[in-house]
Amino acid sequence: MEQTQQKALNALEPYMLLSKSANSPRAAADLVTQATSAPNTFIFAELLQTPNIQALQTASKDYAPYLTLLHIFAWGTWSEYTETPNLPKLSNVQEQKLRQLTLLSLSTSPSTLTYAHLLSELSLPTIRALEDLVISSIYAGLLTAKLDTLSQRVDVSSVAPLRDLKPGSVPRMVSVLEDWDIRCVSVLGEIEEQLREIRRKAQEQRKRETEHEKAVAKKMGENEDGKGKLGKRGGGEEADEMDIDEGGRRLRGAKRGGGNFLSGLGRRLGGGN
Known about the structure:
By secondary structure, the protein is mostly helical. Helices cover 67% and strands 5% of the residues. Strands 1-2 form a two-stranded antiparallel sheet. A hairpin with a 4-residue loop joins strand 1 and strand 2. Helix 1 packs antiparallel against helix 2 and helix 2 packs parallel to helix 5. 18% of the residues are buried.
């Protein structure tokens, strides 16, 4: 798109030089016709500012309309041309160019890009003529777009910066940008508030998980201690039951007092026989 803009500026340069010698209203009017008919000339603000072109304001009614025509090519539309009386008749090349420039202006609002609206705004007789105009604009690098024949609309994704600013449009643009800036600040504030809420909930969730893990670890430790105590008590009883065998002899690990009593009882019984 920047290459298209540079190409348009380069294409206008010869007419900027010719404007210096266009000292008569007729020469200035002819220069307007040549500039608006030439290939790749889509930017005209610099030519409008030249003294000899501005002099057309005070020219006769035969030549003054050429200045109005150049205004329309710079920032106007096809409908403005058709609604303005006493303007010079356009050639086929000029008509094609002014329709292309109008398409660029309409592309700033997606709601205006339906086939029905474009056919009306561009005074085109058929859908085929509209599609041919859009395709020629795409190949010229004026815009990037797709034809949605099913929905009967033109989907524009980018537009070359070729339209000049209409006088008095800068304050309105500043106002639009200020409104946009306010909306951006508001949206950023809402996003930051949502992020803070997400962080707060994440911290609470981590805290709950940590407390739960500690509770589980504590419960598991208590269960381990309980099993250890039960194991010790069970082992002592089993040892007491296994201290004496059938012959009354004390086994390994038997209690000392119980073993002496049984041993003495055995000896007395044996001596009695």
